[in-house]
Design brief:
Helix content is 27%, strand content 15%. It is of the alpha+beta class. Strand 1, helix 1 and strand 2 form a beta-alpha-beta unit. The radius of gyration is 21 Å and the shape is extended.
């Protein structure tokens, strides 16, 4: 399943407002957009697991409704999503667990990182083959 999300940045002036009021709906339908965020008037978060995609949207249908300062998705929508996903993980009948893993795509490159050097100071030399 593919979830198509359209994020529209700040809309300024008549051309932007004309697009939103006259053309956005048709654009969403033509491009099969599932979820649209415009101007940060809404708070949202989308979580993706190997077996579930879920989104939380907080806002209003009326364009005059604006979230106050600090109303971004991480403050408003994320706690709702966190509660939801905890409930999903705690319901064994759903068959969705935190241990589920995404399948590794064919041809994916794998790197074995030595975690013992994780807290070692960074090397100042460029002898690593990556930089050759």
């Amino acid at each position: 399943m593919i979830l198509r999300i359209l994020a529209v940045g700040d809309v300024v002036g008549a051309p932007g407002l004309t697009f939103l009021t006259e053309r956005l709906r048709a654009f969403q339908e033509r491009e099969h957009i599932d979820f649209t965020v415009v101007n940060g008037e809404n708070a949202n978060v989308v979580g993706v697991t190997p077996k579930l995609v879920a989104g939380v949207w907080v806002g209003g249908e009326d364009r005059s409704i604006h979230l106050s300062s600090g109303g971004e998705g991480s403050r408003i929508a994320l706690p709702i999503f966190a509660d939801f996903i905890k409930r999903v993980y705690n319901e064994p009948k759903l068959g969705i667990t935190q241990k589920d893993q995404f399948p590794i795509p064919v041809g994916a490159v794998s790197y074995d990182c030595d975690e013992s050097d994780l807290h070692a100071p960074a090397s100042q030399t460029r002898d690593d083959e990556f930089f050759d």
